[in-house]
Amino acid sequence: MSRLLALKSQTESCVKCPLSNSRTKVVFGNGNENAQIFLVGEGPGYDEDQTGIAFIGKSGQLLDKILEACNFTREEHVFIGNIVKCRPPQNRTPSQEEMAACLPYLEEQIQLVDPKIIITLGATALKGLTGENLKITRERGNWRFWNDRLLMPTYHPSALLRTPSLKKEAWEDFKMVIRKYRELVDPNHYCKYI
Ligand code: URA
Ligand code: SF4
Question: In this structure, which of 51, 143, 171, 186 has its CB flanked by the most CB atoms within 10 Å?
């Protein structure tokens, strides 16, 4: 068993925070175990809680479209996880305590996957991962470092669904990721748009 799969089975019996009481399934994260791009969302919603698969509902479908436009696939190029692995009731924002309880799993996951590029989706993912009270509207589109890894903050797909005018900026952010991916991973990565 890979270390990542061992960590997965560890999280599946986790009761470190109260979200364990209301979850149906723990959503560990999915994608390529050796992906060079690690996407971080906020937490499971209804569909993810039911299936145990990250970003499979409405937001996930939009995320898949964005990845497709980049010519990135879940199977090959990315791994997708969340700040908390269990669904917050009514999809509320996870509390500081819940995020703090769950963060060590995500940190270990990132170390094991060992990506060149991290993308945080939305304010909660950015704040949860960095521990800093950052504004997404200000930080998106700007590379920063997190534990010596490159991090691109962008909007959460649910924000793009609520406010379609933000899609233009989000696409700019993903274009920067494509350029960085070419620079650091595969100079021949094809994308029909850039
Ligand atoms: N929203 C998230 O932040 N994560 C998911 O896995 C699904 C929806
Ligand atoms: Fe454990 Fe994270 Fe689930 Fe809380 S959200 S019970 S810390 S796996």
Answer: 171
